[in-house]
Amino acid sequence: MKQFFNLKFLFNFDMSYIFAVFRPFLKRQIIKRDKSTLSMSYYNLLIFFVIVIFSISVSCNDKPQPNPPNQPDGKTPIVTDPLSLQPLNNTNTNFPDSIIPSDNTTNITIPEGLANPQISAAADIEKIPLINNELKKANNAFINSDIAGANNILINLHKQYPELPPPGILLLKIYAANGKHNRIKHVLDMTTNDSPDDPEAYLILAQLAMKQEEYTAAELLLKEAESKFSNNNVNPVKSAARKKNLLSALLSLQSNLAKIRRRWIDYGQLADKRIQLEGKSADLLRQKGIALFQQNKDAEAAAIFTQADNISSSSTNTNSSSPNTNSNSTNTNQNNSEQGLPAEAMLYQLYNERGDTEKAKKYLADALKKYPKSKEVILLSIHSRLREDKLEEAKSLAENLIKNFPDFELATRYLATIALYLNDYQTAENLFQNLIIKTPSDSHAINGLALALCEQKNNKKLQRAIEYARDNVNKNQQNVEYWSTLGWVLYNANQIEASRQALQKAVATGKITSDTAYYLANLEKNAGKTENAKKLLIKALENKAPFVKKRDVTKLLNSL
After folding, report:
1. Where are the alpha helices (DSSP H) in 355-458?
2. Exposed/middle/buried for 20, CB within 10 Å: 0-12, 13-18, 19+?
3. pLDDT of amino acid 71
4. Which among 8, 219, 229, 348 is placed 20 to 30 Å from 508, CA to CA?
5. What is the pLDDT of residues 217-232, one digit of tens each?
6. What are the residues whose beta carbons fall under 8 Å from the beta carbon of 333, sequence distance 6 or more?
7. What is the DSSP string of 127-156?
8. pLDDT top residue among 45 and 524
9. Residue 47 to residue 88: CA distance in whole angstroms
10. Three-state SS for 180?
11. What is the mean pLDDT of the chain?
């Protein structure tokens, strides 16, 4: 309880989720109709605050959750950012699009999804044009800053078509569609107040909490949402289609939470529930297989993954029979990229995560032999070779991947990074430059280009490297890797003091990459601090995976 009375903790705890859950209860309980009910109202108010305090104390005693491990999800391989070999996708949480609008929904007339009969859940398809017409009116009112007018249109629309989501949810999607994401929590709070028995607002709040890694709050919100489906007396979800969508979203979010918490029995049971609701699919079978593997039921997991492959193969063969299907993509043994990871690749990732590298290598070799043109399998193979410091093999795989998929940018990114590792700076420059031409804001490629340019002993290229590196840190002030690159570029330009300042920014968090250690070692050596330089270089070599300056670290250490 000592932590509970810590004011800093109290102010850091986001109470909005707790109030979103219990506010409808509070509103119903403390209505003061007459003096005889007044004392009961205060009594209920006291109960409410006891619940809140209990909720907070539970979160105090809950052990802090680290960032979720990058676990297999059956859809995307666990590959990493090539320059840092850090996971590209830490959570692998695939939130349903029907729950919360994405950040790229600006500049559209109708909020994304609302024109879709399955998402708007209209009972009769003839109603869709009428509904969309009213949504356009509400959206236009919103654009003209008439929020109250937009809300009234949505309230009347919901009265006319009660199978639609609550007015607050419709308004939320208009906010999101127009890029007003700063008001989302306010609208959700209003919705839980005005429509306390509808689950969708609680689901969106839970998703927001999970994205902010507030997992205890998310769990409370999901329990509250779940209770709405089991309340047979009050059923605000009038449309069977909408109810199914929301139940699917609930189970999906619960699955994500179970995975993050590593509750594997729950994770498997939720897969079964989703199969019962949505039907059997390769993705859900893979979820079930992961749950079994994590419970050390390896053979059962492998059998489930094979079932998932059979469904994927059947789906591909069905698609290949369509006259519109490209004949080049019909062979599942050649390209399994759109069908999820095959069983062998799933088992490679899972055994690798467990630490059984021998079995992992065996399954990866089997996967590459069986699926020689699968993007996902080749990516896993490239990453495996990089971890083992087999740069030439990784380079060959990346070149073949680009040959088969010329527009696959991740393959180009890997090949460019491997060129840096091999000190082939001209090739690295060309490849990173190609990435920037396609995406000028690609800060990762800009960082790689700055490193490639500064190593070529060319004053014009060095000045370009400084410009790229400075611009990158100005746009990404919190990225320590980019500060480290700026420090090294400035060191090569003989701007020693500016280099030291940039590298100090890079190590301010206490995390030093192997490349940064090499850069600092050069500064220490020049300052006559040889022992400090040696310690940094020895520390850098603890990293068995490749990094840009790995060969130079050994050379410098031998010279000291």
Report:
1. 357-370, 375-387, 391-404, 409-421, 425-438, 443-454
2. buried
3. 58
4. 8
5. 999 999 999 988 875 5
6. 370, 371
7. HHHHHHHHHHHHHHHHHTT-HHHHHHHHHH
8. 524
9. 45
10. coil
11. 76
